[in-house]
Specification:
The chain is α+β, with helices and mostly antiparallel strands and about 100 residues long. It has one domain: 2-Layer Sandwich (Alpha-Beta Plaits). The chain is about 35% helix and about 30% strand. It is built from 3 helices and 4 strands. β2 and β3 form a beta hairpin.
Length: about 100
């Protein structure tokens, strides 16, 4: 399992519209092969900043399967207009799991 971490900074004042667009966008990404889950968290100290966590089966499911697809184009059409800056994206693999 691969965890994608994206920091999304939206234009201040557009947070409600961005969150509504993300409701639609999550349906688009959920159809991508290798998609496992999505979680969106809003910043407390910086409420125009969001942390997006997406689980993928493999890194290629994200970087090739999704990013090179029409689904990604639609995803960006929905949420991209709200970005104040380019998203910062990194990928992680499990190192330690406790429950």
């Amino acid at each position: 399992m691969i965890l994608e971490r994206a920091v999304l900074v939206v234009t201040p004042g557009t947070e409600p519209e961005f969150e509504a667009a993300m409701e639609q966008a999550k349906e688009v990404i959920a159809q991508a092969p290798g998609f496992r889950s999505l979680r969106l968290q809003r910043g407390i100290e910086q409420p125009s900043t969001y942390l997006l966590l997406v689980e993928w089966e493999t890194i290629e499911d994200h970087t090739q399967g999704f990013r090179e697809s029409e689904r990604f184009v639609r995803w960006r059409e929905l949420i991209g207009p709200y970005f104040a800056a380019a998203p910062e994206v990194e990928h992680y693999t499990s190192a330690l799991v406790t429950r």
